[in-house]
Amino acid sequence: MRSAARNAPCPCGSGRRFKGCCEPILGGEAAPSPEALMRSRYTAYATGAVRHLLRTTHPDGPHFRSDERTWAEELRNYCGLIDFVGLEVHEAAEAGEVGTVRFTAHFVHGGQGGAIEEHSRFRRVEGRWLYLDGEGGAPAP
Ligand SMILES: [Zn+2]
After folding, report:
1. Which residues touch 112 (CB under 8 Å, ≥6 apart)?
2. Cα 30 to ligand 1 centre (Å)
């Protein structure tokens, strides 16, 4: 897990500074697109911003859990074990209230590098993009 400085390059790899990219979204602003939400969730995993992961998970998706305390604790443990070191967004699309993003997230776990490739689906609910589910991803809490 790493911390992000406001003026440093954003962990999501957009090339923008953290304060002008994922920081406001982690702070509660609505993500303008499924890709922006996906990037902010990656940054949340990279920096341990667990609350953001909870509130941007769609209640109908398989990752949503009603026991927020246990869920947050497991996410915190996960973020502490896995160091996310890079993100590539391959394609992103949105149509109406539905969005998809295909990406690869690179990580280091126990000194070993790895990658998660996932095709994620998003739904917009009351103006906010939420993560619904994904195919091909490694299991994350
Ligand atoms: Zn970012």
Report:
1. none
2. 14
Burial grade of 9 (CB within 10 A; 0-12, 13-18, 19 or more): middle
Per-residue pLDDT of 80-120, as tens digits, reads: 999 999 999 999 999 999 999 999 999 999 999 999 999 99
State the distance from the centre of ligand 1 to the C-alpha of 86, rounded, in angstroms: 11
Give me the residue spans of the domains in the chain.
18-135
Structure tokens at 107: 């990580």
Alpha carbon of 24 to ligand 1 centroid (Å): 10
Q: Could you read off the pLDDT of 19-30 as tens digits, one per residue? A: 999 999 999 999
Quick check: 40 and 31 in contact, CB under 8 A?
yes
**How is domain 18-135 classified at the CATH fold level?**
Nuclear Transport Factor 2; Chain: A, (3.10.450)
Q: 51: closest CA among 41, 59, 61?
A: 41
